[in-house]
Amino acid sequence: MEASSQREVIDFLSTATAYREKFLGPHWSEESACVCSTITAVKRRRSSAIAVSNADKASKGTLEEELRPIIAALTDKDVTHTMTHTSYVFLVGDRLAFKLERAVKYPFLDMSTLPKRRIAVLKELCLNRSTSPEIYLGVVAVCKNEGGQLFLVPLRSCEPGVNTVTLQEEEHQQAAGQRELAIVDFLVEMLQFKQEDILDEVAKRGELTHDMMEQVVDQAVLFHRHARVHHEAQYGSDAMAWITKDNLTEMCEFASDTSKNVDADLARSVCERCVKDTSTHSALLAKRLEEGKVRFCHGDLHLKNMVLLSDRRPRLFDCIEFNDDLAITDVLYDIAFLLMDLLHRGLHSLANITLNRYIQKTHDIEGLALLPLFLATRAIIRAKVSCAQMSSESTDEAAMKKLQHRTNAYLHLAQQMLGMEEPSTMCVALGGFSGSGKSAVARLLACDLTGPIGAVVLRSDVVRKHMWNVDLLDRLPDGAYTDENRHKCYKKMAELAQQVMQAGFPVVLDATYTTDEQRQSLDALSTCQRVWLDADLETRAQRIARRDTNNADASDMTVDKLKK
């Protein structure tokens, strides 16, 4: 393996340690992450290396054909074998799965050699364990001894550049006395989950909730926060320029095939607009690259790559590990895939909840200027995927019509997203004492205001926490609430509101606005509609008590403070 490739894996493993400590706590160890797998447990029970049984020694089929009976004998479970365009998957009973990368090479993926597959499986384990440690259980080396007998050996470390494994003293007798085995491939050991629990299916049943999407955003933001930062120029405006120009070339080529029934004028129009807008925003893209907002992201953040586990909380899985150019991107472009997916499904309110949760957690107001471009680009890429599927689908007329409809729907969505780039004049300020229901009304109103994705909510409690550079749930000192600091907060909210509207989004302001000075901050927003909410003291106290008990809100108000 080249030295640069070895360093790459070492970097990933170092970053993964930080991920795991964040998600799994201080008791995590390299052994527990990479060795504590079902295979290891079985090996310990049998007190032997994991070898092919005598009945399997004569097998001379392909590797995937040889592996199925080995895994079945090892786990004492029925094993089914499926194949995708990139991997073989062995489903063991109803709990485990083993994935073997195929030795294939595509324009977007190269798994043609063992060193490339080694890097890929280690990346897959390290990246995905940050969000789904329960799903990604370990990496298993597929090994052979000198007699050609296959063995499955859990990796005891993820040291790169090793073409062999050395068995422990008590194990090597099971390998015909051979201590060192040649690695011929790798398996990723995973937990099986029910297809019905993938968020794509949950959404189809109408069971996707606001809380689920907020939990998804929280995981994605934490993933981004700990992800490796990239400052290389190739991942800034140049990367987006390449994507948009490639979209233009490929969509026009697809649209020229009349059998696909693609709206050629619309395809060219939205693609050309994206190329133009990328040039317009090149300075902002470069600025975000410099500021560290380009990172090694999930890369494939949509509902089909999220699943509910037994605790009924969603997990992200199946990061892109096989192509750095697809994964290294602006963090907002990563989130844009999820937002676009929700909008394409007609889940407008969930898209709005997702966007506002992301803004709350990151305060990335400046990035909103890029969001229409990012959303449109994501939609166009999905349109290209649908076109490519038309070329590979059977001649089934119903399937072709479905793909044609999907392609044009994505193109229309891209057109709709690009229409957001005109500045908005819609602004609503909700005032009222603490506990009067402002935040609840703001959430509902934001979903219903005009615009493809609704309004951005700016809440004084959240803006104040970002101004003080603390976590949303951290309590601020009383000094944060002096008249001077309150004035700074309300002034900042008005400035942010102008920035949001300039980016093309309606805005809802959520603050008390109980003094003339606070209300005067709205004078700079000439189109702002002002609404006062009220509730009796007892009702407000009950709401604040519930909020304080849950300890999941940015407000520092307490019942004691309310009654003073």
UniProtKB/TrEMBL annotation:
PANTHER family: GLUCONOKINASE (PTHR43883:SF1), SLR0207 PROTEIN (PTHR43883). It comes from the Eukaryota. This is Aminoglycoside phosphotransferase domain-containing protein. InterPro entries: Aminoglycoside_PTrfase (IPR002575), Cell-binding_unc_protein (IPR052732), Kinase-like_dom_sf (IPR011009), P-loop_NTPase (IPR027417). It holds the Pfam family APH. Coiled coil: none annotated. It comes from Salpingoeca rosetta (strain ATCC 50818 / BSB-021). Residues 139-359 form the Aminoglycoside phosphotransferase domain.
